[in-house]
Write a structure and sequence with these properties.
The protein is 66% helix and 10% strand. It contains 16 helices and six strands. The protein has helices at 2-15, 28-45, 48-61, 63-80, 82-95, 101-106, 115-143, 152-189, 199-223, 231-259, 261-265, 269-296, 298-311, 316-322, 406-415, 417-430, and strands at 333-336, 341-343, 351-364, 367-371, 377-378, 392-405.
């Protein structure tokens, strides 16, 4: 009976006249649109806006201990070194004449009595630093999915030094900026402009906040995720983040001026505006973290979306974007000719296949077992267990398939556990 069925199928195949259709196309602008769409959908699905809110709140909590610690550092430095103190106030007077020795004395400084401020500020800074870092780390754990675990020592060490390093970097900028302005003033007084040109230093100090923000965001994107991130991807995300900060800063300024927060809320408006601004920053920060994840895992995300559009009821935008996707899978593409044997019974595996077009039969000892539906996986036994194929796979009608290595298969099922379950169901249903 099975031989008759096989003969009938052979006769039907002989009558089919199908030209192999290559479904994989590479067109970068459309690929970029797909990546942006994936970023938006994953960002929304993971509710990262809520993580942005917690990060903004914790960061604002760090302002008070940061100010106390800054006061302590100034007091120790200025009260202990008289000549340095005088020079420091000369630098400050170039920035703002109102910030002078009397200003600091009115705050109880320059008397070496701010040890309590320093102790409280240091503890608060370490505490808020850990809160901010933990918030970022938890957000990244949602974005960059991984089974790896961090050690307790590494977790706490990095979180405790996160904000102090930021503080030192910001303080360095302040000192460099003040020294540059003082040197520029001295050069003008002695008429040395023709001999010494510090314009490049002035330009550098004006860009220092941008450089600092770029460096910090790059470090966070590169080293905080539990998965390995390419430096080029982390840098691209950091650059996009900084550019977006600049643009949203302009938009936020227009919004605040139009809404007249200072008139409505009075003094507290400064706190509200700071909270809104930090909230926007963290939203952008997590958005570009998601973008880095997408471009790092685009191949597996694209094939999962492609597969889902044919096997489930996709959202209409998913169908529009990914019905003819797979641009990133070009290197796995395999042209099939009639009679080609993709793999044989008891052959060592290492690959799983996905049929894009044409007809493929699974056989054993020359006997027909089943045919493979288009846009379906087959050869699952080649990537699980002993990785030995349990059937032959023979092309009956020319077409195209994907020959996916085990490493990529593991990435695909890590992105979509549903596909893993379906592949196991395929093995059970086919009885192989």
């Amino acid at each position: 009976m099975q031989d008759k069925l096989l003969n009938a199928k052979d006769e039907l195949i002989e009558k089919i006249d199908i030209q192999p259709v290559e479904l994989i196309r590479t067109f970068y602008p459309f690929t970029l649109i797909r990546r942006i769409y994936l970023t938006i959908s994953i960002f929304a699905r993971n509710s990262l806006i809520n993580h942005a809110a917690s990060g903004a709140f914790y960061f604002l909590l760090s302002i008070v201990p940061l100010a106390l610690f800054f006061v302590f550092v100034l007091d120790i430095w200025l009260s202990g070194y008289g000549k340095v103190s005088d020079y420091f106030f000369q630098l400050l007077s170039n920035i703002n004449p109102a910030i002078n020795r009397q200003f600091f004395e009115s705050m109880g400084l320059l008397k070496g009595s701010s040890s309590f401020y320093g102790f409280v500020g240091a503890l608060g800074l370490l505490w808020s630093s850990r809160l901010v870092f933990t918030s970022i780390r938890n957000g990244f754990d949602i974005v960059f999915i991984s089974s790896k675990k961090r050690g307790i020592l590494k977790n706490n060490l990095v979180s405790l030094i996160f904000l102090p390093i930021t503080f030192v970097a910001a303080l360095s900028f302040f000192i460099i900026s003040a020294v540059t302005k003082q040197l520029d003033k001295l050069i003008n007084e002695f008429g040395l402009n023709d001999l010494i040109d510090l314009s490049f230093l002035n330009s550098l100090t004006s860009y220092y906040p941008v450089i600092l923000a770029l460096f910090i965001s790059f470090i966070l994107y590169k080293f905080i995720p539990k998965v390995k991130i390419k430096g080029t991807y982390a840098l691209a995300g950091a650059i996009l983040f900084i550019v977006s900060i600049y643009l949203t800063q302009k938009l936020l300024g227009v919004f605040i001026n139009a809404s007249k927060y200072n008139l409505i809320y009075g003094v507290i408006s400064a706190l509200i505006i700071a909270l809104i601004w930090m909230y926007v920053l963290f939203i952008l920060f997590y958005f570009y973290a998601t973008f880095i994840y997408v471009i790092s895992h685009y191949a597996e995300l694209e094939i999962v979306k492609y597969y889902n559009t044919y096997h489930y009821k996709p959202f209409f935008l998913d169908r529009l974007m990914f019905t003819t996707a797979l641009s990133s899978m070009k290197k796995y593409e395999l042209k099939l000719n009639k009679g080609d044997k993709l793999f044989s019974y008891n052959q060592q595996g290492g690959y799983i296949y996905m049929l894009l077009s044409g007809i493929v039969f699974l056989e054993r000892d020359g006997k027909f077992i089943t045919d493979i539906p288009t846009n379906s996986f087959f050869g699952e036994s080649g990537v699980i267990g002993d990785m030995v194929y349990s059937t032959d796979a023979v092309c009956q009608v020319p077409g195209y398939a994907l020959k996916i290595p085990k490493e990529m298969y593991e990435k695909i099922v890590s992105v979509s556990p549903d596909i893993s379950k379906e592949l196991l169901n395929n093995i059970i249903e086919r009885g192989i």
